[in-house]
Every structure is written in C-alpha cells, then in structure tokens.
Amino acid sequence: MASGAGLMLAQEKLRSPLGRAIGLGSAKEGVEHWWRQRLTAVALVPLALWFASSVLAHLGSDHAQFVAWLRAPVPAILMILLLGASFYHAALGCQVVIEDYVQSEAAKLAALIAMRFACVLLAVAGIFAVLRIALGA
Amino acid sequence: MPQADRPLSPHIQIYKPQLTSVLSISHRATGLALSLGTLLLVWWLLAGAIGPAAYAQAQAFLGSWFGILLLIGWTYSLFFHLCNGIRHLAWDTGRGLDLASTYATGWAVVAASAVLTAIAIAAGFMEWGHS
Questions:
Q1: Which residues of A touch B113 (CB under 8 A)?
Q2: Which of A8, A115, B54, B78 could form a disulfide with B47 if both were Cys (CB 3.0 to 4.6 A apart)?
Q3: Is there a contact between B128 and A59 (Cβ–Cβ < 8 Å)?
Q4: pLDDT over 70 (residue B48)
Q5: Is the sign of the CA dihedral A77, A80, A82, A84 positive or negative?
Q6: Out of A52-61, B78-87, B103-112, which region has the weakest mean confidence (pLDDT)?
Q7: DSSP letter, residue B95
Q8: Is the ipTM of this complex over 0.85?
C-alpha cells in the first residue's frame, strides 16, 4: 500500500500520485517481470528450435567442424542471442521459484542474488566462448 | 516467516492429480531442468573455444551413457517447456482458457513434445553414427 495522500481520481487506478511515481505495489514490482518473461519466451521459440536442430546436426562434429560452424556470422550471432535470452528467461523463472519456496527472508535474498549472479556468469562465459571462436585466429 | 510446527491439512497427498496441475508443475520442473542444463551448454562452448583436447573431453562426456541420458532428459525438457510455453503464450492473449480447450491443448502438448523428442533422439543417433 503506497503512502502519501492523493485524490482518488475516478478514471485512474486506485493509487496515490506518490505510489504511482515510486511504482511500488504490495507485490514490490510491477508487470515488467511478466512482460520480459513473455518477450524472452517469444524470442526463444525460434532460437531454441534453431539451437536444437543445429546441435543435432553437429553431434558428430570434430573440433575443426565445430569451430568452422560457430565462426560463421549467423550461427555466432544466433548463439549469442540464444545465450542472452535463455539466461534472462531462466533468471526470471528461477526467481519466481525461489520466491515461492524459500520462506526465510534472508535465505530468499541470498538465493535470489546467487542465482542471478550465476546466470550472469554463465551467460558471459558462454558469450565469451562464442566470441573467441568467431573472432579468433 | 519460518514454518511453525503445527498440524496442517493434507493437500498434495490427497488432491487428485489432473492434467492441468501435472502439466503446470511439469512446466516449472522442466524449466528448472533446462536452467541446470545450461551448465552443459556453456561447458561445451568453452571447451570448443579452448581447443581440440578440451573439446574432445566434452564430447566424450556427452557421448557417454550418462551424458546421453542427460541429453535425452534435457531434450525432452526443452520440447515440453517449448510446447507448453506456447500454450501459456496463447493463454496470455486470452485464447483457450475454457476447460475443454485447456485439456485439448494439454494433450496436444504432451503428444507434440513426445514426438519432437523421439525425432530428435532418432536424428541424434543417426548423426552420431555417421561421425
């Protein structure tokens, strides 16, 4: 419940101007999480299908073939996009799981931070790997 | 608030499992499984970036029985989460929220993910055999 007095305007939501400015509700965050989850989901539909078919096609590849594949611009770009979208989507998803099941406020905060950091770490590592292959000698 | 040591009514133990609830928790479970699986993906990419020896090591693990088991599980998780995710996106537009559609699309998701996984496994083994 936002603090601050304000006129209850008939056409607006039942929020005070201060509440609207801060953007906080009882849920602590708004629809941004929901929307970004959907956005990354939509991006991941084609990306995941591309990924699945590409990996299957390269299951038997040796190192030289693997490098040749990821060196090309389109696979490299798509793989980077896949890593970014996947880890963002995963972070949002794991966030709601942690919020649901971890009851202690301290443990929940620790878990959320650790999970986010892990997602960033893995995403950066993955993107680094792709760039090294794509841009390397 | 920590859980108090008080008696609770049984819920999960007695509520009859239904397609709706089973698919819902499966969507969450496959999401978690996929998140864990990203570790394998990043390892594979890093191994490829490091060099032929590291890459061969990663391929050897992925080609082992345990590795293949993980990959099949991950593949099924991917396709289930993908198909059910599309079902969720359709719900977000307001479509198919009635019970009949929910059950119909639910069974479609189960079938589609099984078929896609089967195709992937078949294609994978064929490709692997050609190496």
A1: none
A2: B54
A3: yes
A4: yes
A5: negative
A6: A52-61
A7: T
A8: yes
